[in-house]
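From the shared-data thread, chain only:
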Amino acid sequence: MAPTPVTLTTRPPGGIAPAGRAPLPAGPASARPELLPLEDGEQYRFGFDMGACIGCHSCEVACAEQNGLPEGTVWRRVGEIEGGRFPDARRWHLSMSCNQCLDPACLEGCPTNAYEKLSSGIVAHHADDCIGCQYCTWNCPYSVPVFQPDRRIVTKCDLCKPRLDVGRSPACVDACPTHAITVEKVVVADWRADPSAGDAPGLPSAAITMSTTRIALPDGLREASASASDWSLRPEHPHWPLIWLTLLSQVALGASAVAGTTTVRVVAAALAVAALAGAPAHLGRPVAAWKAMRNLRRSWLSREVLLLSAYTALAVGAVVVPALTIPAVGAGLAGVYASARLYVVPGRPSWDTPLTVVRFFATAFATGPLLAGHVAPALVAAGIGSAATAANWWRLSRSTDQAWWGSVRLELGWFRPWTVLRLALLAAALVAAVAGASPAVVLGVLLVAEAIGRWLFFVTVVPLNMPGSFWRGTAGSHR
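Structure, as tokens:
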């Protein structure tokens, strides 16, 4: 889906700052009168000189102190990039925070409209509107927004807006002893025409979201360089409530599609209700789940919630009024499509493919029809799902980028026993069906296989990110 143009606003930034942080008075030590005012067509951005950075992490400390961040939550990170061969080898450092993108992916997908592009260019986050769904952390190719456990919401850098409002530099800029970090103005039209100055080894392309951070690369930086965190490949969080939601809603849809009896319609309705009932457990603020439909214009998550809720209501109604089965299936198909599209984001390469949509629908029609005793179409759908998984492995393995091949390495390496078990269960389901086993037995085997597959879907995804450090592995704070 093409990014929706972002409208700059002057909405008061209520809720964007941590509790207790107040605007600071102007002071002679860091006053920057040239930062005020912005001309039409300009916005603020960070500048970073990689050749000047010594990796002291003063910027990280200053950011955490300025914003009252708890241990484990970081808004600015210092990564390491290595290049060359012994004895002519070098290490450089890359300090990065929010890039205040022209087309911010976090804003694009947020279901509650908690993000806003201010007239200063700052991508502000309104904490009062955040429900902690973490969809923005998947969308951002730099993994900038982070889940803050003590507040149960996502938080991010706002370029120290209270300081900028009085002409002062952000805390990280003031703390840098080598002046490697700066804050400056950028002409938006010029940057849109050529954002290449925002590219650096180990970083996702600036063109994905029109990242505005200007990076000055050192003369000695070699093309054959790599992030120091490339050695560290870690599984992601399984997101159990999302496994529950996606799997049950898809089984329910498959059942509704072939429901010819009241019993099957009752089972479909029960599964749909159970799926929605467990979904809010994924949120940091479950009591605010009602806010999730605020951004139907842009967010696939908002659309998923609306469509799956409509499907559930119609599926329940179909128990009493069978004629509602057809509209229920229509809403269910749209809901599962929205659910799949939610994961098709550039920030997660292993998900960012139409094969994700194919796999979600394959799960629905490999399981649901078995509830009505239809074995043959279920096995065909299971085969299509397995082929889509294999095609995705092939697609990812062709790239040298860790965010691509790393997912295959996790699934076929770290989690090989589970992958083998899933394949064995699929084969067992086929053998059982051919041997004349009851549909209930085949369904039980396939459900276990699909549950393992959905778990692998979440834990083996490797996000795009900025380079991390050798000792801390992948940069960022993950729940």
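The two ends are 27 Å apart (CA to CA).
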